[in-house]
Amino acid sequence: MTDETTPPPAVRQLRLVVEAGDYDAALAFYRDVLGLPERIAYTDGEDDRVAILDVGRATLEIANPAHKRAIDDLEVGRQVAGHLRVAFEVDDAQEATRRAVEAGAELVAPPTTTPWRSLNSRLDAPAGLHVTLFQELDGEEGVPPGVVTESGAGDDPAARRG
């Protein structure tokens, strides 16, 4: 328990742990196709394996049900994402989407330009993850004109979507 003068503990890392029935296919997809560098891997024989991949900067996007529906409608045209969607920022969404599909991901929606100037595609990827690949078209994330953030500002870089 902390008192008012003790700051809460700092989170040092976000780690999303995904169980993959086909470990080798999932590892090849995320490491080799998407290009996530392998930081470390552990094995205890063939039956107990894990790889920790570096995804660069991590954020945790908390969305209410209305926002989740709005993003699905905008990017895909229908409700497709479950409770969890993983978004990866890439340099070239067209090329990354093409490579992902060639490697076995199922294309849900092709790259689509969003009102906040990112190019987003949707895929059902290995290990049962629903994935967005997104490219910031103007070099950084933004808020579409007319949208007011909870901080009260439009085009607030702190209010970002993936």
TrEMBL record:
Residue ranges of region Disordered?
A: 140-162
Origin superkingdom: Bacteria
Q: Which Pfam families match?
A: Glyoxalase (PF00903)
Checking PROSITE patterns in the record gives:
VOC
Q: Where is the VOC domain?
A: 12-136
- Protein name per its UniProtKB record: VOC family protein
Q: Which organism is it from?
A: Cellulosimicrobium composti
